[in-house]
Design a protein that fits this description.
The complex is a heterodimer. The N and C termini of chain A lie far apart (about 40 Å). Chain A is about 0% helix and about 55% strand. Chain A is mostly beta strands. In chain A, the strands form two sheets. In chain A, strands 2, 4, 5, 9, 10 and 11 form a six-stranded mixed β-sheet that branches. Chain A is globular. By secondary structure, chain B is mostly beta strands. Helices cover about 0% and strands about 50% of the residues of chain B. In chain B, strands 2, 4, 5, 6, 9, 10 and 11 form a seven-stranded mixed β-sheet that branches. The termini of chain B are far apart. Classes of the chains: A mainly beta, B mainly beta. Chains A and B meet through strand 4, strand 5 and strand 10 of A and strand 5, strand 9 and strand 10 of B.
Chain lengths: ~110, ~110
């Protein structure tokens, strides 16, 4: 039962343009959301998070938007850089829990 | 902060053999997690320790799997009588708190069962 879904397995974007990654969830108990970035042969590294009390959180080039009514969040990367080429995982959890539920990931390729 | 360390990085074994992986969390983190990731999927929760106590095991963790965290420091994950379906990346993570706390992951152990 996939509670977190990333329906786009891959995304190709030109350097300098915006990357938009989407994530949908089904569990209404989820109220804390995270994005992780993973390079080959490395573990996932935390990128940015958002609590359900907010609808936007920004950290440098990365912004996460949360639409609770649609059970949808997105990650915007502006501008995209070659070093952003990686797999991005969306994760969610109830804030009183410790288990993260991950999506299947989106592979981002930034073209020079 | 030396990060979460996992050993070995790669393990190739024959079906039916036992394997053991080790995880050293970030030193001040008292919470430790094991996840499993298969190709094309995101990490899936396996088990969780708070200090030395194993507080939850996923139904993904069959009787052939056992995890320990003696003295609340490093952890081991053992798989007995390995099967080809056990082939995956086994990820360890640690954190300081449970709520709204990001997990720090190790680089994982890639298991291949032949």
């Amino acid at each position: 039962d996939q509670q977190v879904k990333q329906n786009s397995p891959s995304l190709s974007v030109q350097e300098g343009r915006i990357s938009i990654l989407n994530c949908d969830y089904t569990n209404s108990m989820f109220d804390y959301f995270l994005w992780y970035k993973k390079y080959p042969a490395e573990g996932p590294t935390f990128l940015i998070s958002i609590s359900s009390i907010k609808d936007k959180n920004e950290d440098g080039r990365f912004t996460v938007f949360l639409n609770k009514s649609a059970k949808h969040l997105s990650l915007h990367i502006v501008p995209s850089q070659p070093g952003d080429s990686a797999v991005y995982f969306c994760a969610a959890t109830p804030s009183n829990d410790y288990k993260l539920s991950f999506g299947a990931g989106t592979t981002v390729t930034v073209r020079a | 902060d030396t990060g979460v360390s996992q050993n070995p990085r790669h393990k190739i074994t024959k079906r039916g053999q036992n394997v053991t992986f080790r995880c050293d969390p970030i030193s001040e983190h008292n919470r430790l997690y094991w996840y499993r990731q298969t190709l094309g999927q995101g990490p899936e929760f396996l088990t969780y320790f708070q200090n030395e106590a194993q507080l939850e095991k996923s139904r993904l963790l069959s009787d052939r799997f056992s995890a320990e965290r003696p003295k609340g420091s490093f952890s081991t994950l053992e798989i007995q009588r390995t099967e080809q379906g056990d082939s995956a990346m086994y990820l360890c993570a640690s954190s300081l708190r449970t709520t709204n706390e990001k997990l720090f992951f190790g680089s994982g152990t890639q298991l291949s069962v032949l």
